[in-house]
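Bug #77: duplicate submission created two jobs. Keeping one. Sequence:
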Amino acid sequence: MEQWLWDAACKIRGATDAPKFKDFILPLIFYKRLSDVFDDEYEKCAEKFGGSQRCN
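Kept job's structure:
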């Protein structure tokens, strides 16, 4: 199964050189960090002002 998943990932990503992966990975890491900080700040505000009704 591991090999099957690896082959699938290779087909999706195509013929990309390893150094170019940073062009894909760094924005994802940035977005994840931004999302985590937003969630933390949202929880702080919910505790401070009461309620945590969030539209998803």
